Automatic annotation (TrEMBL):
InterPro entries: HTH_MarR-typ (IPR000835), MarR/SlyA-like (IPR039422), WH-like_DNA-bd_sf (IPR036388), WH_DNA-bd_sf (IPR036390). It comes from Komagataeibacter sucrofermentans. GO terms for molecular function: DNA-binding transcription factor activity. This is MarR family transcriptional regulator. It comes from the Bacteria. Gene3D superfamilies: Winged helix-like DNA-binding domain superfamily/Winged helix DNA-binding domain. Residues 1-143 form the HTH marR-type domain.
Amino acid sequence: MAKSSQANQANADQMTQSLRDTVVAMVRRDGPDLSARQLAVFLTCYLSDNAHTVRGLAAELNVSKPAITRALDRLEDLRLARRTADPMDRRSVLITHTPQGNGFLRDLRTIVNETSAAAQEKVAAPVRKAPRARRTEELRRAS
């Protein structure tokens, strides 16, 4: 049980470090700087094929409709999302993708892949070094 708990903690630590590295890479790049809420709204809209409304996003993210509206205002200012009238219900607004938003998602995926690869390399490096260290120690003892 203790080993499982330690493994879970190590995994959580690794994921937290990977999240930090991803956020730092996003901050350092020359692109839009999104808050956590804005990023959550953006990713919710872009990672799902479903049509999204302010009401639906508010329910899914468990935040108020005004908070979603503010996040969408910022995303629209950055041209990462667009609000369009729902053709089935003109009172409702649908959130749609934009070319700039598709590009931002592509960049974000690249950043996540790079930080994940770097994290995996950090984990794999000691494992690769261990057999070499054992061989070196065995050779030293044999001398």
